Amino acid sequence: MRALPRTLLFVFTNLICLGQNIVEIWGLKCKCDICKKTNYTCETTGYCFASTYFKNGVQQYDYRCLGPNLSLPHNNPIFCHSSNSFNATFAMKCCNKEDYCNIHLMPELTLRPQAAIKEPAYFTSLEIAAFIAIPTLILCIVAGAVYFVHTSYHRRDAAHRHLRHGDDALEAPEHPLLNKGVSLKHMIEMTTSGSGSGLPLLVQRSIARQIQLVEIIGQGRFGEVWRGRWRGENVAVKIFSSREERSWFREAEIYQTVMLRHDNILGFIAADNKDNGTWTQLWLITDYHEYGSLFDFLGRNTLDTNGMIHMACRLQLVLLIFIWISWEHKVNLQLPTEI
């Protein structure tokens, strides 16, 4: 009875060895996804395997046979070991227990499908045209706005300088009217010969473009009075609007009466007109007196008895001059209190 278990163990061992030999002789049948001619079946004396990988973002599975030359070592082939790293892109499992055993194999990838390489995005022709046209349009709008603001500012600044300072910088002649060392008073005396009519007509018609207005010193019903600079000397500029042309003409005619020049009478220089860009200005240019009119001077200063007597004598002399001029040339002069 004791010999029976030993006999059964021997027979069982032989059957196992015989089965392995039969497999090696007849081969192992496996599922093959590319073997159409053999009904998707392949035979090998090695192993059946199933592998998986990503292709174009889609997970693919392959079922094949692993030949004996690749099934080394025989009990645990190297090719049947998959990487467990996170970035693995290929996984493989093997079996040799029975035919078609690889049908049930499901190798897994540690790489998630979201991490697979995606195809580059391509833009349509309309999108490319929009990407080019929109920035170009914005740039043109900004450039146009800057140019408009710049031009408007310079126009306004030029008009302001034209009104306030005249055209000295633009239209000053290369050869000035006054030679060096010749004052405005000397030039008036030389050109008028004591007639009192002011500068020659040619000089009068260009003097407004050579005067630089400095500050306003008075304002009335007919216009404004400015202190100006002409050839380095102060002059008084009375500016009439075009609506007061009759008043300007009458006053200019009075100033240009012959024999009106005198040291005690306001000296007349010229009468001219000037376009400031919006309306025409009518100018009367005379000598500039720092203390203003007699009325203004008496309002700001107090005179003693001797000063009053001295000024009365001067006023009497001025009145005699006006009476003589009125009788000689029959000029009707209105003598205001602010003479």
From TrEMBL:
List the InterPro entries hit by this protein, alphabetically: Activin_recp, GS_dom, Kinase-like_dom_sf, Prot_kinase_dom, Protein_kinase_ATP_BS, Ser-Thr/Tyr_kinase_cat_dom, Snake_toxin-like_sf, TGFB_receptor
Q: Write the signal peptide boundaries.
A: 1-19
Cite the EC number. 2.7.11.30
Q: What membrane topology does the UniProt entry give?
A: Single-pass type I membrane protein
Q: What are the GO BP annotations of this UniProt entry?
A: cellular response to growth factor stimulus
Q: Where are the transmembrane segments?
A: 128-149
Q: Tell me a GO cellular component.
A: plasma membrane
Please give the cofactor(s) recorded in the UniProt entry for this protein.
Answer: Mn(2+); Mg(2+)
Record key words, sorted: ATP-binding, Kinase, Magnesium, Membrane, Metal-binding, Nucleotide-binding, Receptor, Serine/threonine-protein kinase, Signal, Transferase, Transmembrane, Transmembrane helix
Q: Ranges for the Protein kinase domain? A: 211-339
Domain GS, which positions?
182-210
Location in the cell: Membrane
Q: Does the keyword Transmembrane helix belong to this entry?
A: yes
Give the enzyme class.
transferase
Q: Which residues bind ATP?
A: 238
Q: Please give the Pfam families that the UniProt record associates with this protein.
A: Activin_recp (PF01064), PK_Tyr_Ser-Thr (PF07714), TGF_beta_GS (PF08515)
Q: Which GO terms describe its molecular function?
A: ATP binding; transmembrane receptor protein serine/threonine kinase activity
PANTHER family cross-referenced by the UniProt entry: RECEPTOR PROTEIN SERINE_THREONINE KINASE, TRANSFORMING GROWTH FACTOR-BETA RECEPTOR TYPE I AND II
Q: Which family does it belong to?
A: Belongs to the protein kinase superfamily. TKL Ser/Thr protein kinase family. TGFB receptor subfamily.
**Name of the featured protein:** receptor protein serine/threonine kinase
Name its species. Acanthoscelides obtectus (Bean weevil)
